[in-house]
Amino acid sequence: MRRLLILLLALTASACGGGGGGSTPPASAPDSPPAGELPEPDFEPAPVSDISPLPSADAPVRPAPPPELRLATATDDGECQPAQPITGITASSSGDENDNNTAGKAVDGDPSSRWESAWSDIADPDDAWLQFDFGAKTAIGSMKLYWENAYADEYAIYISDDAEDWYQVRYITVGKGNTETFFNLNINVRYVRLQGIRRHTHYGYSLFEAEFQTPGCGNSMPTLDTSYVPYPVDGRDRQPLPAPAEPIESIRFTLADGTLVTRFGMVGRSRHARERGEEWNEYGFGRNDTVDGQGNPVDKGPGAHLNFVANYFKNRTWGVEFIDNSNVAGVTEPRIIVNQYFQQAQKGGGHSFVRRFDDPNVTGFGWMSPGDLLDDSTYLSDGAPCPVVPKPANNELLNPDSGFHGIIGANDGCSVVFDTYPGHSALAENADGVLVPNGDNVPARPLKQGDIIEFTSSFFSTREAMDAIGDDGAVRYYTNELTYVMGEGLRPWYGQEPRLMNEPLPRHALQGGLGSVSYDYADNASFIFQQPHNNVGMRNIQRFMEGRRWLHTNLWSGAHNEAGNDRNDAGRELQGQHFNQSTCVSCHINNGRSVAPVVANQRLDTMVVRVGAESNPANGLYLPHPVYGQSLQMNARSTTSGTSENWGNAAYVAGFDSHDVILADGTVVTLRKPTIAFEGPSPASYSLRAAQPLIGMGLLEAIADDTILARVRGTPDEDGVLGTANYAYDPESGEVRLGRYGWKAGKVSLRHQVANAALLDMSVTSSLYPNRDCLAGPKYCDPASGTEAGLPDDALQLMTDYLQLLAVPAQRSQVSGFPQGVSPLPYLDVDPNKVAQGEQVFNDIRCNACHVSEIQTSARSRFAEVRNQTIRPYTDLLLHDMGEGLADDFAEGLASGRMWRTPALWGIGYTKYVAGDIPVGYLHDGRARTLTEAIIWHGGEAEVIKNRFINLSSEHREALLAFLGSL
What we know:
Layout: H1 8-11, E1 90-93, E2 115-116, E3 129-140, E4 142-147, E5 152-160, E6 167-172, E7 179-182, E8 187-199, E9 206-213, E10 229-230, E11 252-254, E12 260-267, E13 317-324, E14 336-341, E15 351-352, E16 354-355, E17 367-369, E18 372-373, H2 377-380, E19 403-404, E20 407-408, E21 416-418, E22 420-421, E23 424-429, E24 435-442, E25 445-446, E26 452-457, E27 459-460, H3 463-468, E28 476-477, E29 481-485, E30 489-491, E31 493-496, E32 501-504, H4 540-551, E33 578-579, E34 608-612, E35 621-622, E36 635-637, E37 644-645, E38 651-662, E39 668-678, E40 685-689, H5 697-701, H6 705-709, E41 727-729, E42 736-738, H7 750-762, H8 793-804, H9 832-844, E43 855-856, E44 870-871, E45 879-881, E46 899-901, H10 911-915, H11 931-937, H12 943-950, H13 954-966
Helix pairs in contact: 4-8, 7-8, 9-13
């Protein structure tokens, strides 16, 4: 007699780690093993952001020093003299706390005496200062401060020649106390002032000593031997990216008789797809924490479904294979054979196919049918009797002519057969509008082509099995929940009535094609940009996770930015002395955008500042800056001790230029642009650039060159829209290729993008850029000039693979069937009619002239997941002149200072949810605080279209914004 295997998670509510009750198992179910053998997965909290706090909003703002107060050039390491102490300094202050701890004690050479600012009897003790007088204009290279325990949390360093006009050379947001050294001051002044902003204690500021040195070896930046970086002046010699004939892994294929084989990868998760941080249930059926007594929404935080378990990259992925014969001629009662491919021995079972939608006590989880385990003893016996099975070759079954117990294709007794849509209760609304059983039953029936099946798996290993592979991690995990359509394959899904029952998303909502991320009902929006393709391959899921590890690795310490993960020893001490951030995700926060410029004195070290020595480079040439190289690297550390250092290479917000625009309905919109200042010398040209979301980059690389180039225009269209391609040299082959990544389309491939960002943003070399002299141009950028420890080639490949497989969320344009009385998640509470109206407005005013809504990818990628997909990125990947308002003076190849590549809009509605508490903005420098501001900044080729937006009615404008918010 056929027996159903019931997962432990479906037997009781307590086993699920959530609310809502459980379903009753059929009488034929085998006994469950002791609960102690299958513990609940650990709850994995979301990581805490390590972004530095912003400066105080009311802090004073001083201009950057003029050239006459700076030294003319940096020090040349080959000729510089040792730095010398500067003596004969006098000191004064805004006020001393007493007659003993006076300002002069900070420069008396006695490390035991100290200055203490007045604090006990003044109105604002935070606003204290200590001033140093060198007696005459003096060249100063560095300053060292020796703090007492009462140090400054936030303070500024000002300089002056007359003690009246003050200029800012450093602003410190997070003071560290103890000893703080400021290198590379390279100033020529008489006065230096420490200006307090915020005290660390309730006492005054207390400084033992301040020491100054002249510029010299060890405290000043060298002058770089820069060389011109060439760009192609046209695309006549363009070569497309290499195109492998076959993908590295097949994810879907059809056998000769019509049997459909679908393969996909899974990763361990802590909780189910519908569990939030609150308990939730329907009216009258248990506790519901999503609303208060008045029915107002309550948010107790996210669940733990889309985040990543500890050591997710280590033996915690596995593959699943569906063998579906519903398309085979003559088959009237089709079935799915399920084989699983784990990296360690497992207990049998761990499959479920249809969620318990007919029971109002089961909301976030619960299952009707886990299928027929071919050997029940693999579930009932002790230990982990299911051995590791090698993954089959592409487009081939492991057992095409044999199987288990007569089931051809089944690997062993741990395989499962699913062939019956289970019987369930018929439903009708009660007085509260809740769908409840009405006393009738819908009988079980054979599966049929087109049936929509929800599937989930589980990881049921043992301590002994994990120890056998040298893994001391957990032995039990949940995983993703997927939707499978009989005869078609996997489809991204959303939840319909009753109780978020799985339904395939319509094709027009699949922004990232069939790999789009399904709707998130676990309130895990901060992780929505971090998911693999919905149909990721069972080998590629491991590549994805190992690549993710590298993007989350601190490339100095090797530490992971999420707790509980093993250190990546291969990623240790790869970083140079000067850098912006140490992990990729410190700029691409949660794989999204960098911190936007929102307050004066804010350091811009999560953004990129490209710099040049010339303001108007010609003939496709670019000359790096003689001090900074190609890009500012704003942070530093000692290469011996690893402690952080301040070398004064940062750019910061000096203020904002604002003006108002009045829309047709009278709405006033204030546009605000940050003005930028430099701690060091101001470059002849520069470009401030925000980190962009990382989603869908593999899909963009899979677009054929000809598809992009077909939209290039030689003459403007009726609205003035042109569209220009950019080109760049491939750093590996030297060939001219079409540019498609970066704000000015200056990178030709994901590999190019990763390696270039590693060098410019993190000071990490690779085989593409073998040494840090590459920052100064190509002259010494070759192995013959020296190599430095950097990203191993396998790490560079894994990082590239990760980005290739990073998925795009589906558009949120469908109404979700939240249970009655449950508060919808804000980003899933949509009005489809308004979204559809907004899309029509988007097209009517011709935003789609550049933000192209639909593109077909090609078959040239090494990943099947991104091949031949219909995607909706809302970009043409071309350059457009955006007018003087958005211009900088930095050219990159054929992209002038006024030209920018059209950014993809997919995922833009998730911006604030992905960022969490981090302030984010739009456009290339993050200036726009809202999408309305971003649109109104458009000019140049977009001037006519922008004006159509300005002249929209309130109704049409709000509809357009609702549409953008759904992307």
